[in-house]
TrEMBL record:
The lineage of its organism: Bacteria, Bacillati, Bacillota, Bacilli, Bacillales. This is Cell division protein DivIB. InterPro entries: DivIB, FtsQ_DivIB, POTRA, POTRA_FtsQ_type. It comes from the Bacteria. Belongs to the FtsQ/DivIB family. DivIB subfamily.
């Protein structure tokens, strides 16, 4: 009797490639699910926006200009974009933005300094910054050593140049100046007239102010009140001499 051998059945081997694909898909789905849950949770949102150093700009103005708001996506905020947006404000000189997880954004602002003040119609006092921007003076108070700008056209380009010139001069050299008014001529289109707290009247130009201000202070410290001219040449004429000469002329007229 002969026996017939049956062929051995091959065992089904697991398809490794297929199992790896399924694992990868599951991982991706799991990661996507976690991402959805995370970005929908409050932990991924902006919860605090802290503006530091802003004196002349309100929080509402800064928020509107920056484009960020509470409840927005924390990770979607670009610090460079926020900085560039805020630098477009005429009050902002420098800005740095810092993000602290979870949800805190700190914005440090350096504003242009106030170099003068201006009293507008209606009695509204505004601070004139070195950038030329005019901002209302609220509860910040005023610096008494800053001059008042009078009769200036808001569109006058010399006004912005004057602000830049004042910003480049130390407060010690300008603290006695109480008022500055435009006084242009054909020869000196940027000519200005200054009035000091020590009762001097000064004629100069914006382009010469920085180089001439030291002479101004020398005269103020050593002379009686008078008219100081600081243009191509410097001169000083005391007011008292003029009044004495006028009195002498009047006496001569009486004698004649």
């Amino acid at each position: 009797m002969t026996t017939t051998r049956l062929p051995l059945l091959k065992e089904d081997k697991p398809k490794k490639k297929m199992s790896r694909k399924i694992t990868a898909i599951l991982l991706l789905l799991f990661t996507a699910l976690l991402a959805v849950i995370f970005f929908r949770s409050s932990i991924s949102h902006i919860t605090v926006i802290d503006f530091q150093g802003s004196k002349y700009s309100t929080s509402e103005e800064l928020l509107s200009q920056s484009g960020i708001h509470k409840g927005g996506q924390f990770f979607a905020v670009s610090t460079k974009s926020v900085e560039q947006s805020l630098l477009e404000l005429k009050t902002v000189k420098a800005v740095s933005v810092k993000k602290d997880f979870p949800g805190v954004i700190t914005v440090k602002i350096e504003e242009f300094p106030a170099v003068a003040y201006e009293l507008e119609q209606g009695g509204i006092l505004k601070a004139i910054l070195s950038s030329g921007a005019a901002v209302p003076v609220n509860d910040t108070g005023i610096a008494v050593e800053k001059p008042i700008l009078t009769n200036w056209d808001p569109e006058d380009p010399n006004k912005a140049k004057l602000c830049q010139a004042l910003a480049s001069i130390s407060n010690e050299l300008t603290s006695d100046i109480s008022e500055i008014v435009p006084s242009p001529t054909l020869s000196f289109p940027d000519r200005i007239k200054l009035y000091t707290r020590s009762r001097f009247e000064v004629i100069t130009s914006i382009s010469l102010l920085k180089s001439k201000v030291s002479y101004l202070n020398q005269v103020i410290e050593t002379k009686e009140p008078g008219l100081i001219t600081m243009l191509e040449a410097d001169s000083y004429v005391p007011f008292q001499v003029g009044s004495e000469e006028q009195k002498g002329d009047e006496q001569k007229d009486v004698q004649e």
